[in-house]
Write a structure and sequence with these properties.
The protein has 256 residues and is mainly beta. It contains 3 helices and 16 strands. Strand 6 and strand 7 form a beta hairpin.
Length: 256
C-alpha cells in the first residue's frame, strides 16, 4: 500500500518537474542574449544583456547624451578698490551669461533581480555608470573685458560658490566634473532579454554622481571665502544635483 501511494506521488510530481525544467531551458542560464535601444534622461542608449538564472539578469550599455544646454545670468564681482584710475569701469558689467553644454557619453553595468522569476517582470537593479568625469562644458563672454583686457585681473563671475575668471579675450571657459565611477539603484518592469522576440522595459532610478566641481584650465577651483552663492538657474543646477534622476524606456529584443 505504501509503495502504491509513493508511486502515485512521484507520478503527480512528474509534470511539475518537467515544467520547471522547460522553464529553465527556455529562459535559462546564459543561454540567451538580448539587445535593446533606449531613450530617457541619460540620452539615447544601446545595451546587450543575458540571464544568469530566471531571477538574475546582467547587462552592459552605453548612453549618448545630446547637447542639452542650460544657461544663467551670473553675477559679476568687481574689486573696485584695486582698479587703477586709468582703467574705466563700464556700466554694463553687472552680469554675464554663462552656458553649460551637457553633452557626454557614459557606460553602465547593471545586475537586475526579478523576485518572482519568470512569473512577473518586476525588477530591482543595482550597478554603476562610468565614463568621463566632465558632465558639462561652460562658456561665457564679456564685451567689456574684450574691449579692456586689463579688467580681467579685477573681475570674476560668481557661479554657485565659485569665482570664474575671464581670459584676455573676455571669454570664460571651464567644465563641470563629477565622480568618474557612479553607483546606481533602480526599479521597474520588463526584461532586457524578453521571453518572446520583442518586449519593453520601463526603468526609474538614481545615479549617484557626487558633488559637482568646477574646473578652469584643468585646475579645480576653490569655493570663495565669503561663501557667496549664485542665484541663477545654472548655479542651482550645480549646487543641487548630486543625484542624477534616471527615467528610461527600452525597446528590447531577444537575438539568441
Amino acid at each position: 500500500m505504501k509503495k502504491t501511494i509513493l508511486f502515485a506521488l512521484l507520478l503527480s510530481l512528474l509534470p511539475f518537474s518537467q515544467m520547471t525544467a522547460q522553464k529553465v531551458e527556455n529562459f535559462g542560464v546564459f543561454k540567451h542574449v538580448g539587445a535593446g535601444v533606449s531613450v530617457g534622461t541619460e540620452g539615447i542608449g544601446i545595451n546587450v544583456a543575458s540571464p544568469v538564472t530566471n531571477y538574475l539578469e546582467l547587462s552592459l550599455g552605453v548612453n549618448f547624451m545630446p547637447g542639452i544646454k542650460i544657461s544663467g545670468d551670473v553675477d559679476i564681482d568687481v574689486d573696485r578698490s584695486a582698479i587703477p584710475p586709468q582703467i574705466e569701469l563700464p556700466s554694463n558689467i553687472d552680469e554675464v551669461k554663462i552656458k553649460g553644454n551637457l553633452s557626454r557619453t557614459t557606460w553602465d553595468f547593471k545586475a537586475s533581480v526579478y523576485p518572482f522569476g519568470i512569473k512577473n517582470a518586476l525588477f530591482v537593479t543595482a550597478g554603476f555608470s562610468f565614463g568621463g568625469k566632465k558632465i558639462a562644458k561652460l562658456k561665457g563672454h564679456s564685451d567689456a573685458i574684450e574691449q579692456q583686457p586689463l579688467l580681467r585681473d579685477y573681475i570674476t563671475a560668481n557661479l554657485d560658490k565659485y569665482d570664474l575668471h575671464f581670459n584676455e579675450n573676455g571669454d570664460i571657459n571651464g567644465d563641470v566634473r563629477v565622480n568618474g565611477f557612479r553607483p546606481y539603484l533602480g526599479l521597474g518592469y520588463g526584461r532586457l532579454v524578453p521571453k518572446h522576440r520583442v518586449g519593453f522595459r520601463l526603468e526609474l532610478g538614481c545615479q549617484f554622481m557626487g558633488k559637482m566641481k568646477i574646473y578652469q584650465d584643468g585646475h579645480k577651483l576653490d569655493t570663495n571665502d565669503a561663501d557667496v552663492k549664485g542665484d541663477d538657474d545654472l548655479s542651482d543646477f550645480i549646487d543641487k544635483f548630486t543625484v542624477y534622476p534616471v527615467l528610461k524606456f527600452t525597446l528590447t529584443g531577444r537575438i539568441l
